[in-house]
């Protein structure tokens, strides 16, 4: 499948759901939203919906925007002094450094609420869309991102299982939301949705491993606490092979997932 779903395409969708007010909090929201992100989560969602349903529906576009709002909220809060205390994000000052801590907290809160408001503008009478919304916000809460942040803050990485649990919870949850929501709104069967979910969990681990290797100079918990870089890259290759095998079992063109596997292990940032 030729991927013509670009960052610019996602940005136009996102802009259509932004409030019109111009106060400081909205400025902080937009600063973080348009700070150079790859948009790979909404791109994965739309590609999945297109692969399964043969088109990109308005519901898929709505969920793609909601997903990116959740993702950006999580980055703003993750950078806060009480969390990871990061001054920089994507080569720019983090939101709380640019606008102040109070504005950053409010910007994150507003983006999470905006995600819910945005989702409600979709075809909420459709059962599959309802299931997709429920899954997205499940992955945003105590069984998803919040759990991952809690593990990051309050637990230790003693072995590879600990690191994997953290990766799935903190990084994998929104990748799971992308593939599962796309599959649901596209019309995939329950069994096929489960395959997409399993693929997404593995993608989350692979993405986090590469992140850990690229950020090896930072004093944070990571897979490097328990494995060498060479061993980790070998593990990514192993998981990539598993992912591609699962893709081949699906009755859809999943080339975009295979391309993501290859681009992830090759990325430099």
Structure description:
The chain has 269 residues and is mainly alpha-helical. It has a single domain, classed as Farnesyl Diphosphate Synthase, CATH 1.10.600.10. It is 70% helix and 1% strand. It contains twelve helices and two strands. The chain has helices at residues 7-15, 24-33, 40-53, 58-78, 95-99, 101-119, 127-140, 145-154, 160-186, 190-214, 229-249, 255-266, and strands at 88-89, 92-93. Strands 1-2 form a two-stranded antiparallel ribbon. A hairpin with a 2-residue loop joins strand 1 (88-89) and strand 2 (92-93). Helix 3 (40-53) runs antiparallel to helix 4 (58-78). The longest helix has 27 residues, at 160-186. The protein is globular, with a radius of gyration of 18 Å.
Per the CATH scheme, the topology name is Farnesyl Diphosphate Synthase
Unreliable runs, pLDDT <50, ≥5 residues?
none
**Secondary-structure element string:** HHHHEEHHHHHHHH
What is the subunit organization of this protein?
Answer: single chain
- Helicity level, as a percent range? 55-70%
Q: Per the principal axes of the C-alpha atoms, what is the gross shape?
A: globular
Over all CA atoms, what is the radius of gyration? 18 Å
- Main sheet overview: 2 strands, antiparallel
Strand tally, please? 2
Structural class: mainly alpha
CATH class division: Mainly Alpha
Percent in strands: under 5%
Q: What is the first-to-last residue Cα distance?
A: 25 Å
